[in-house]
Amino acid sequence: MAEPEITDNTALHRFELEQDGVTAFVLYTKSQNSLRLVHTEVPDALRGKGVGSKLVAGVLRLAKQNKLTVVPSCPFVAEYLSRHHEYLPIVEPEFRRRILSSE
User: Phi/psi class of residue 46: alpha, beta or left (left: φ > 0; alpha: ψ in -120 to 50)?
Assistant: First the structure.
């Protein structure tokens, strides 16, 4: 199965995933070397289908490919990271410690 296509809508500062004509997104702020993931929004029509997890996984893969450090300000992203430790190496160290200590 192909990975979902995550697009970077730079005008709105959000990564988007469209499914069934509806768009889920993660709002972000970006600096030269880091990506702060601020808020994840999954419309009601897409909830319970794993869309939020697919979206966050795609955003984290993009961050890793672009050698960006991630700051998970969004609770959904932090929760995802607590279940997917393979992405912890790209998380800013202070937040990595918080994620690991909350387990």
Answer: alpha
Range of the domain at 37: 7-101
Write the pLDDT tens digit of every residue in 19-68.
989 999 999 999 989 999 999 999 999 999 999 999 999 999 999 999 99
Q: Which amino acid is at 78?
A: A
Q: What is the pTM of this model?
A: 0.92
20 near 45, Cβ under 8 Å? yes
In a domain, 1, yes or no: no
Provide the b/e sequence for 77-97 (b: ≥16 CB within 10 Å). bbbbbeeeeebbebbeeebbe
Residue 47 within a domain: yes
